[in-house]
Amino acid sequence: MKNRLKVLRAExxxxxxxxxxxxxxxxxxxxxxERGKYDPSLPLAFGIARLFGMTIEEIFDDGHEND
Amino acid sequence: xxxxxxxxxxxxxxxxxxPLRDLFLTAGVVGVAVVAAVTLLNRNPPGQEPxxxxxxxxxxxxGGLIGYAALTLVYMKRTDExxxxxxxxxxxxxxxxxxxxxxxxWMLNHSGLAGPVDFWALYIISxxxxxxxWSWLRFR
Lengths: 67, 140
Fold this sequence. Notes:
The complex is a heterodimer.
Chain A: E1 2-3, H1 5-11, H2 16-23, H3 27-34, H4 42-52, H5 56-59, E2 60-61
Antiparallel strand pairs in A: 1-2
Helix pairs in contact in A: 2-3
Chain B: H1 19-41, H2 54-78, H3 81-110, H4 119-139
C-alpha cells in the first residue's frame, strides 16, 4: 500500500528512529511501512494519522478511486 | 506542518524499541541455565550419550519450560506488530517445512532411499527456516 509517511516525516525533519519512538515501534517497522513492505494495523494507522494531524486516507492510498 | 516540534509525550511502550536486546538477554540466561543443568546432572561419562535420573530429567524439563514461558512472555510484552507479524510468518514457514519434510523423509526411508527419520535434524532445520524467514521479513 502506498503512503506519504516518508514525505510527512521529512517535512518535520524526523528520522525513522524519531518516528518509531513516537509510535512505540521499531525503526525497521517504520522503514517497512514507508517502503510499502508492511501494512500497519488499524490501531497503528490511527496512531500515525493522529500523530500527523491527518486522516488515514490522507496518508495511506490503497489504490482505489474515491466516489 | 513544517517545523512541527516533537512535543508528544513518549508512550510507556517506549521499551518496545529494544525487544531483541531483552529477548536475547533472557534467551542467554535461560540457555546457560539449561546447559549448566544438563551438564551437571548428566551421570554418564563424557563421550557417551547423556543420561539422567528420572528426578533430574523432570527437573530439567520443568526448569526449561519455565524458562521457555518467561522467554515467550518477554517477547510478547516487548515486541511490536511488525516484528510479531514477521514472527508469525516465520513460525508458519518453519512448520510448513516440518510438515512437508517429515513424511517425505519417512517415505524415503521406507522405500530404502534414506536412513531413518532424524527428528532432531528436522527440529533444528525447521527452527533455522523459521529464523531465516523471520529475519528476512523483519530486516529486509
